[in-house]
Amino acid sequence: MLDQMGFKNVFDKVYASAHLGVQKPDVQFFADYLGYRDKVWSEDSSLAEWYDMTPSAQIYTAELRRAMEQYGTDKLMALANASVGRLRSMMQDLGIDSSLVSPFTDSTSWFLWHAAKERHLAANPNAQAAMPNANKYNPHDPLVLLDSFASTDERIAAAKAIEAMEFSQLGWELYRLSSPHIDRGPEKPPAPIDIATVLQSGSSASENLRRLVNEQPKREPGKDTTLSTFKLTYLGQQAYENRNRPEVAYPE
After folding, report:
1. What gap in Å lies between CA 64 and CA 12, rounded to an integer?
2. Distance between CA atoms of 166 and 189, rounded to whole angstroms?
3. What is residue 116's predicted lDDT score, i.e. its pLDDT?
């Protein structure tokens, strides 16, 4: 299931050893909020198998449950829906046709998954230190943005964490749509977009981003996956900040 998303659970062994004794949360809660059931899957048996076989899914489910108890489900889902909406607008700004957008990106599950992950890692520095490319990340709890007692600095850090999450998901979409290494079926059609077409003409970022989308993904035998999160974040941010912008006609 996760292979279809382009994600590989490279952290599961770390989590399994670092978090023994974690009480297993309700599978139904996972399916409702983290299982992409709103846009992708509806089979409870598949979601239950994903949950049972993925220690990180169990940990993030527990983390998200605590967050919902702390801030309220409605507030947290409003934050998730706002982020999904912003990402949709970002893709429109890049000129990407809505028919090309993955249903995973239309789901609130990607936001909730990454928010729970960031929240968990921010509170557990030992788990963060054990992650691959740990020096590339400085996690902050993005859900602090919902805390009315948080300091200004904490809220700024939370807002930046959400922005990074959005850029990462945007990068995932751009890599999925423009990389020659993605399996698009037996007929092997070309990538739907050329990364250069979303950038300003002559942008200095063009060469770097083209090199990045041509980079081999992390691989599992026989399956295509994706780039590391920090590379996806860079891809999404650089593409958006250097995007083609319509010329503004000023009155004479």
Report:
1. 18
2. 28
3. 97
The answer to whether the Cα torsion of 57, 62, 65, 67 is positive or negative is: negative
Dist CA 125 CA 139 (whole Å): 9
Which ranges in the chain belong to alpha helices (H)?
2-5, 12-18, 27-33, 44-53, 55-71, 73-93, 103-106, 109-123, 125-129, 152-178, 205-213, 229-241
Residue 199: strand pairing partners: 243
**Closest alpha carbon to 160 in 145, 180, 178, 181:** 145
Residue 159 is classified by DSSP as H
Tokens 């399994």 correspond to 16
Angle 173-228-203 (CA atoms, 0-180°, nearest 5)? 60
pLDDT digits (tens, 9 = 90+) for 193-208: 999 888 887 778 888 9
Cβ–Cβ under 8 Å, residues 252 and 105: no
